[in-house]
Amino acid sequence: MSNAAELSVGDTAPEFEASVTDGSTIRLSEMLSSGDGVILYFYPRDNTS
Asked: What is the pTM of this model?
């Protein structure tokens, strides 16, 4: 995993992929291709730093 620079509101998010609960993988570009827009919300797990 690489360290990325902090993004500000309105910045374009870099391409990334994530594991889905069913074991498949989804990419940001796939979600954006629908044209509906995407909201990304990240938070640390409970009891983590």
From this structure: 0.57
